[in-house]
Amino acid sequence: MEPHVNPEVRRVADDIGSMEIRGAAKIADAAAAALATQAKESDASTPEAFRSEIRVAARTLHDTRPTAVSLPNALRYVLHGMEGTTVEQLRESTVAAVERFRERLERSQADLGAVGANRLKDGDRIMTHCHSTAVLACVEAAVAQGKELTAVVKETRPRNQGHITAERLHELGVPVTLVVDSAARRYLNGVDHVMVGADSIAADGSVINKIGTSGLAVNARDRGTPVVVAAQTFKLHPGTLTGHSVDIEMREESEIVSAEERAAIGDPTVENPAFDVTPPRYVDAIVTERGQFPPESIVMLMRELFGENTTEPWLQSVT
Ligand SMILES: O=C(COP(=O)(O)O)[C@H](O)[C@H](O)COP(=O)(O)O
């Protein structure tokens, strides 16, 4: 019999899939919290049954969106923390691992923000793409230091996450100019830093982030504008150490055109990749909670953090 998956886990998985919950850090946080609910409310009668439940719940969460490695990294963290020989011990250790993960997430965001704020000077103008809580942490820390910033915010088609960024920046007191994505190059001359987040960072320092990031970075390099990637270390993709590539999510065409619109324009093939890969040569710095790194050196940090351990415990047998 398939182990019981808590309805809250299914709800969170659905919300991640539909992007109600979105952005790499928020996805990781919500997935970890859902595992805690699974653990707390489990009525498994044996340790084996409990472990199976947690693993199946982790897999349900894992199979929602493929690109943000924060999701499997969060699940891996919790599953590694699950230990004990009784159901109660397993439950307690799992819930404690979730709490540790969520605390670390919060702390790393604040520490990263302090590092990123050091790059920003009073009067600087930044350009953003998509909505990244890590980028906003840097801005928030800089504003708290009394620096006055302005921002050019790309709307980020097709889902317009730029609107969320605009709103958050407004709340921080940062004046925003909202532009369509294709206008970015025109505004780069007047911008001091391009600041983006990341869904995954590969061992060679490539940055995987919202579609449009790579074009922005190439244009920024052409204009001499530094590109800063704000990303906690749980965005580092351990699988890339052993030659795996990062899966780029292809989303529904309906996010771009309705069925009627599509039919009216001759039924073209529509493709909707959600992310792209920015090669390390277009990135000036990756800002993490452990300091700032040139992208080419990120592999050293990955080896230190992950060692040889790149296994995925939720892929173990469910029985
Ligand atoms: O690309 C996106 C979100 O894509 P989507 O909207 O498709 O999830 C964000 O830049 C990163 O996830 C970083 O966000 P954060 O810094 O908050 O982790």
TrEMBL record:
InterPro entries: IF-2B-related (IPR000649), IF_2B-like_C (IPR042529), Initiation_fac_2B_a/b/d (IPR011559), M1Pi_N (IPR027363), NagB/RpiA_transferase-like (IPR037171), R15Pi (IPR005250). The active site is at 130 (proton acceptor), 199 (proton donor). Gene3D superfamilies: translation initiation factor eif-2b, domain 1, Translation initiation factor eif-2b, domain 2. One of its GO terms (molecular function) is ribose 1,5-bisphosphate isomerase activity. Its EC number is 5.3.1.29. It comes from the Archaea. HAMAP family: R15P_isomerase. This is Ribose 1,5-bisphosphate isomerase. It comes from Halogranum amylolyticum. The lineage of its organism: Archaea, Methanobacteriati, Methanobacteriota, Stenosarchaea group, Halobacteria.
